[in-house]
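With this grant's support, we have settled on a layout for protein records. A representative record follows, to show the layout.
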Amino acid sequence: MYILLPVVVFTVRAAIGLDVDATEASRGLIRVSETIAVSQRHIKLFYPKFIPGEHGPTGPINSVISFRILSGGTTLAWRRDPVDMHEIDVDVPPTASSILLDFVVTTATSLGDLNSANLCRIKWNRLLWYPGPLPSDDVIITPSLTTPEGWSVASALDIAKSSGRTTSFKPVSLTRLVDSPVEIGRYFRSYDVTGNSPVRHNLDVMADSPESIKPSPEFLAGVSHIHEEMEALTGSRHYNHYDWLLSLSDGNAIEGLEHHESSEDGLYEQSLIDPNFTITVGELFCHEYFHSYNGKFRRPSGLATPDFQKPMLGELLWVYEGLTQYYGFLLAVRSGLMTQEHWREYVACVFEFDRSHVGRQWRSLSDTTTSAQIMYGSDTKWRSSRRADDFYDEMILVWLEANSMIDNATHGQKGLDDFVKEFYGGESNGPEMRPYTLSDVTSALHKVAPLNWDAFFRERVYSIQPNPTTKGLEASGWGLVYNSTPNTTLEHRGYPFGGPENAWTYLTASIGLYVQGDKIIDVVPGSPADKAFLMPDGKILAVNGRAYSVDLLVQAIAKTQTTPLTMSINYKGAIENVTLEYKGGARYPHLERIAGVPNHLDLLMKPRRKL
């Protein structure tokens, strides 16, 4: 029988000692000893559920194993809440001034493991419980971390002392702790990328091999320009120091997660060596860094929750993530980590990818933000019919249009950069959070250019749009065209989630397929592939009577103006031969200059820092 205990509202700050033993991280296990001061006889403990930056109830409660609560050496009984799986109730002995939580956490996630044999990403939210209900700002934690022999530690956290393999950090609030991950690893090197800034900036690289932790001097220079560009743009920073925490392994989860004073980036091992991927690394760094301003310093009020149990409301993710995606690419170009041509090619791909998501015919862009927590991690099968997290890339086109509107209204005197300075600038006071609403966004835009921004976003974001907008592109002097020349960005975007063996081939503009190796990932509704009844998970065995390869398929599509395209497909054991009704040849998106219209796009990409 479950006995409902009274909810205890704490009126004092909670103190927690957190000792994390990661000596078995290489095998995917982390042991935790957590001491919580108590003064009540009945308490509730919460495992963080809604994690900032992940925009949903992603707290991995099933990663907790071998869980015990003790007091004075005696194991205490506990009861899980029947509704909230992240909450437990505990009866505390009358004489106890503290309780000890002893448990193990696995490093497994839905996207892969956080560890390899030589490194691990330490996410504090996975390694603690906290009493409540209490605001996370009111919980003070003193953490320590013990690593395997010979492993190094990198974090934005301030270190109190180091002794042997144990690093003790200075006490911080639960809010700041969860926002300050640690990376540990055998092969490590830290690079000073402070550049022309008065505060420290570091790139901390850990990898599965010593050869993989050596970025080029050009790449390091580009990273140092990221914050130089942002400081030139806003005139301020909202952190005391900043670390890019990069872990490189084919065996750990691919990730990019923003934090106030660091970014947590997990990529495949050759990312700093493989030229097909280095550009993506640079853009990822820029994206997560911009979040220090947009997402951490300024955060949508629906995501600015007081603790990690209150549900997050993601309606304004089109600002949080969409504006960050836009400026992530701009910062990459302005800092020299990406060429102007690369970004133009990518923008053309953005239109094509979002055009192919025909789910836009029945759901608005805003619905993808509101439902983001169920969009993340959803299957790729029939994604084109469902839509995906389109609020990232499609907002590039929307914000580009907003920039052109400001430029036109102010006769070239202002642009979206002025909004960023107005909204994300201010004093450099270190980490702080200022929530915002849609009204705050439109008011700041109106201050830069007095236009009807409510109507603009109502049309572009909150209404169903048959196609992505091209108005901003055209006003910037560029039009969208399709031809047989391959889009060079697709060569770099080919394997964003791992090495070459995981490469995707994008054929949406021609036959309507997303392909990974010999596997069909998705089919665009209404496309030739759809009309031929091809389906996700189908395995391509042959093309035009020859054994399948990606190159053969691409070549066969290019010849369709004169030669029919036939494919042999194995779908769950049933083999079918199909002929696609398509004669359009190779077809890829690009941007092309519009004669007589000034080239504002290239001006937008020029550096803002002093050269």
Q: What stands out?
A: The chain has a mean pLDDT of 94.
